[in-house]
Structures are given as C-alpha cells and as structure tokens.
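User: quick one - fold this with guanosine-5'-diphosphate bound?
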Amino acid sequence: MSATSAEGTSDGSPLSRVRNIGIAAHIDAGKTTTTERVLFYAGRTHKVGEVDDGTTTTDFDEQEQQRGITIFSAAVTLPWKDHQINLIDTPGHVDFTAEVERSLRVLDGAVVVFDSKEGVEAQSETVWRQAMKYHVPCLCFLNKMDKIGADFYESLLSIEKRLESHPVAIQLPIGAEGTFEGLIDLVTMKAYRFAGDHGVHVEEYEIPPAMVADAKQWRHTLEEKVAELDDELMHKYLEEQPLTECEIKRVLRQATITGRMNPVICGSSLKNIGVQKMIDAVVDYLPSPLERPPIDGVRSLKDLTVVHRKPRRDEPFSALVFKIVAEKPLDLYYIRVYSGVMKSSMRSYNSNTGEKENISRMFRMFAKRREQLDEAGPGEIVACVGLKDALTGHTLCDAKDQVVLERIEFPTPVISVSVEPKNSKDKETLIETLGKMARQDPTFRHSFNAETGQTIISGMGELHLEVLIYKLDKDFRVPVIVGKPLVAYREAITQRAEAEGRFIRQTGGHGQYAVVRLRVEPFKPAKGEEAFSFSNEIKGGALRAEFVHAVERGAKECLSMGVLAGYELLNVHVTLLEGKEHPVDSSDMAFENAARMAFEEACKHAGPVMLEPIMKLVVTVPDDYFGIVSGDLSARRGLIQDTEMRKNHRAITAHVPLSEMFQYSTHVRTLTQGRANWAMEPHSYAAMPLNLQKELLRKHGYGD
Ligand code: GDP
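Assistant: Sure. Structure tokens for the protein plus guanosine-5'-diphosphate:
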C-alpha cells in the first residue's frame, strides 16, 4: 500500500473518486433490498439475498432479520467504475435516532429511498429532516416502481410538497406496476433496461416512440432548472440552444452538493431495475470528501478556539469514532479519518478523554470479509482494534496538534425499565454488560437505584428498550426479568425563592461552620448549555473563592435528587447572596452542606412542578379513520398540531405525553385494522396537569 499524492487514499485511488454515502429510508421502503443489490452489482457478493428469506449481507444481526428492519450500521467498501464507494448502512427506525445521526454525521451524501406507491410517508419526513440537519446532499430513489399503485409523478410531487427539498427528475420510468421495464435517463436522453440474470446487463437503447414527447418535456424542465443556477447556461437556454450532457451534469452536481437540488431517480430493487443507474448517479452527483467543507473543531474541551481540518494527507491527523461493535476478542471501532494519515500500530490521542489510544490493527470492511490496511488517509472509513476507552463521538488526533471535532448531540432518554438478572449469579455480568452496551449506544443509559436495589435502563422508546433487552439475552447471554416501562419525568421550579442554609457544629474540638443565603429561579439554557447556572453576588471577596466553589458544587449536586419525587431537577439558576465563614471551623465540606440545605429549602418555595416528556407523533391514516384516531389522541391528552390531506390519507401531527403512548403500536393497529403508519420522536418536556402530578406523587409515596 503506497502513499500517494496529498489528496490520495491509501490504496492509490485519488480522494476525488471516493464516495462516503448512506442509503437512508424508513422501514419497508426497500433499503435492505437496495443495499443488497448494490453489493451484488459492485461484484462483492455472489448471491443476491432476499430480505424475505433472511439471507441478506448487511443484515447480519439475527434480530434484524427477525424483525425485517435494519437497526445496526455496518460500513462496507465497494468499487464502482474506478470509484471507491464506502456505504454506511443507516438504521431506519426513529427510536434509533442516535444510530441514524451518528452515521449521517460521517456521510458525504445519501440516497433516500421512497416507496413509489406511498410517496413521502410520516417516517420519510423524519429521515429527511435528519439528513438536512447535517447538510447531507441527497438523491431521491423512488423504489418499488413495479408495485401495484406505484406512481412516479405523484411521488415526485409529494417530495416537493412535503419535504424541504428541491427535487428534479433526472429519470422517467418506462411503464409502471406490472409493466415497469426500465427507465429513461433525461441527462443522456437514452432508455435503459436491465437484462440477463438479476439484471446484470445494462442495455442502452433509443427512447421508445410513445415516450419521446414526455421525455422531451421533462428534459426541458430539467434544462430550465439547471439554467436557473448558472448564468452561462441561462444565456444559452434563453437563446434556445440545447444544453449538453456535460453542462447539465456539471451544474447538477454542484447544485446537489450545495443542497440546492435533489436529483430524483427511480427503479425496482426487487425486480433488479435501475440499481446500477442509481450507483452511477451516486458517482455523478454526490460529493467526494474533497468537495465537502473542511471539518470544524475546537482546539480542546477547554480552549474553544475554532480549528479547521482539510481532507489532506499533509494536515495533522484527526478522525472520529462513529460506531463501536462488540466483538470477541476485541471491540471493533468504526472510524472516519478527516485529515492526515492513520497508521496501524500508531499511538493516537483521544482529545475527549485526554488519554492515549493504541490503534493496533486496521481494516477495510467488506460485507463478509475484511482486508488489513497499513494506513488510511483522509476521507476513508475504516474499522480498527486496539482502542480501549474511546466512545462513539470521540475524536482521535495527533497529540502534538490537537482538535476536538464537533461532538455528536444525542437526545436524552425518555423511557426506562428495571431489569434484574434471571440467574442471581449474573449480577456482576449484567452491570459489566450494560457498561459495554452504553459505550456502543450513547442514547442508552443505565443506573442502579440503591434504595430499591434495582438496575434501571433508559432509552429513546419502547422498541429501543426491547432491542436492548433482546441483545442482553441473545448477544451477551444475560437473560433478565423486565419491569414495566417507566417514563423519565423531570422536575422544575416556576418562581424565584430565597433561603438560608446553616451548617454549624461547634460543640467541642474542631467544629464546622458555614452559613449561606441562596436565591433560586427558573432559567432557559441555550442549546447545548447545562441545565444549571450559578452566579455570585457577594461583593469584594467577603467569602473565600474556594468556599464559593463549594457552594456551587453543593447546590449542583442537589439537581439529581429533585425536590418533589426524586426526579432530576432541570433549569435552575442559583445566586449566592450572602455567606459567612469562621476563621477556623469553616471548610469546603461545611459550605457544600449549607448550600444543599439552602438550595432544597429555596426550591420547595419556588413552585416546583413535575415535567413529563412530550413526543411528536405523526400518524397517517386513510381518511375514514381520521375521526377515530384523532379522538383517541385527544383521549391520550394529545394536542393536534396539524392535519394534512395526502391523496386519500390524512396525516395528523400531534404532541402527546409519552406516558399515554405505551403499546400505541398495538392499539392503533386495532383501531385502523392495520392501516395506520406512524412515527414518534421526543419533542420536549412540559409541566404535568396538577391532578396527574398529584396522582403520580401519591403513587411514589409523596402524596399530601
Ligand atoms: P427496508 O425495511 O427499508 O430495509 O426494506 P426491505 O428491503 O426489507 O423491503 C421491505 C419489503 O419490500 C420486502 O418485503 C421487500 O421484498 C419489498 N421490496 C423491496 N424493494 C421492492 C421493490 O422494488 N418492489 C417491490 N414490489 N417490493 C420491494
């Protein structure tokens, strides 16, 4: 493996020919089938797997095959026409936001798969929003063109209307449903069909006469849209000169990369139609790592000076850990290199922990095999072993030239269950295993409640927890007894209040002395800011700085215990108003205690309330079921935000308390005879109605 030019990857292919992409879609749109076909055509697997018979290559996890959904990301490298495509499999269920965001973070582009019969569905909107959040350039692939009811033009319209997008058709289907047989490429103005076993032969032919007029009209629309983005081409367009294939590709590529256009293509992965043209479009329109803006980071967690890193071999080394997969004997760390060169047997610096990390061996991952590498250059996605304390989202860099790349932001878990090992001898293994799982999945938390002796695990939704429990049993062989799901309530204060805390023990010997007066008040942290802030209003050093710090520490420690029912208290600003110290008897410990007493007392008088997680729910139902589903949502204390007609379906957006949503899956299926489609994600925390708060407190033994 020889080193190449400044922009080269380690295997000699220039970086401009690398595409780090993902196939994103919600469950059932056909992502797994499409991925499987991509792997097959890229010549890396020799058998076309069918999802339905559970033999696909990327869905290697047993549970995924059982559920038929792709939950875990796996990075796969494949060659395509002189290019190296690194395909990062993105999970499709909103309960697994962390997995989705984690993979989107390291992609340079994505193909978003839609079902051409359904068009944009509730869950496609979530997937799209996530891609937009990370400014990932996207192609739209209208899959399942062979299915009864498939409609390319309606689906195109739904992308335009329902997504914040700029779709432009660059293909048209030839036929639809049972007669779907190929496609017209509006850039080359040729027709294509996919002949031979599994459609391996892409045959180009003239546009069928019956479709020439349509093709010309859509080509005209394409030219118009392209010309709008380029002065030179606009000039040509106005003079009615035809644009060349090369000109269209150039502008379309630029516009896609900058997010001003989303080329729309079509096919049927199941019937082997259009997949190779989709991979061609990835190469033609999605960016190489060189075409992405330099990555930004900060110098260190303390020094927030912004640092840019260009994807060049001669820049200092920086890379991001985006996935950890538990493997025996060593965990596998998936890493994207952003700048410089990563070598096997290298020591790198983890700028999030401040620890050195060894990279002992490194691999390029194919679906079923791995190839050992000596080094990996910028833009490459590799897996390595040897790291110990790195977590998902951590930066590895050169110790002499440090950087912390943006940390991935993960939502906090909203739902918990208690777990207890079935075999009591597994107690320690359970704790160890949960620690391991938390390292792989940052939206998963676990804690031990000393009072009840229970181990609690928390996550993003019911399905998320179900999957984690299944993994405990099947992957780690620690079967558990699971309690009822519990909502992760929070507490907050609603008013200002003041109180004094006195911690005085002066009966003989060395005493304790601290007196503080605190004010607490609600505050709204900015995005990414802590839910606690502190200020000191004592003038002129009347209290020693170390004691001021002790007061802050003492007050902050109280947050986790809450004031009403032991749930975490959020969004409190504390002001230190007065403090008295004793020349001999005062200590940090005394001030921490006095601060705790003052804080707790003040919060009790500051109108404490319980907060509950509110979910954003989108349900799409046939119009006939609208009344029954929206009535049910109201009964669940849901507030309908919006309803929209989509063909003969109605999409309802509502904010609903999570505590009312347990088993919604089963319930909505019964209500609509299985015809509802829904997605849910954490939205916010809101104060509970007083009567429910009282009931909840009574249940917890805190009633009046
Ligand atoms: P995923 O959940 O997005 O990964 O979707 P899958 O690839 O598992 O596909 C979901 C279902 O749709 C499976 O039963 C597939 O066989 C089927 N499917 C996938 N692609 C097509 C297609 O192009 N046409 C039709 N008719 N069915 C498809």
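One thing worth noting: The CA atoms of residues 121 and 620 lie 8 Å apart.
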